[in-house]
Each structure stands twice: as C-alpha cells, then as structure tokens.
Design a protein that fits this description.
Radius of gyration: 14 Å
Order of helices and strands: HH
Strand content: under 5%
Shape: elongated
Largest sheet: none
Distance between the termini: 18 Å
Helix content: 25-40%
C-alpha cells in the first residue's frame, strides 16, 4: 500500500481522461475542466514516508 501504480498514473496522464475524471467526481458530471486547458507539470507528486 502507498506504492505508485504505474498503469493508473500513465492512464491519468492523458488530458481527456483526467478532465473526465475530475468533471465526473468533483463537479457531478458538469464540464468544468476541458482537456485543452490542462498542461503537464513535471515534478514529484508524492513523497516517500520516512521512518522514525
């Protein structure tokens, strides 16, 4: 648990998939986020938990 799921992350990197996901879950199906409004942001999106 807590490990990165590469298949899911790759799937969600697609702008149209991510926009549909956000519109469906956050906005109840209303089209508030358009795929053409999104851009990829490089960087770390999760951090490893440190022991101790």
């Amino acid at each position: 648990m807590g490990e990165k799921n590469d298949a899911f992350c790759t799937f969600m990197e697609k702008e149209d998939v991510f926009a549909d996901f956000i519109n469906g879950t956050v906005f109840g199906g209303r089209r508030e986020v358009a795929p053409e409004e999104l851009e990829t942001v490089p960087g770390i999106y999760h951090a490893k938990k440190k022991n101790g």
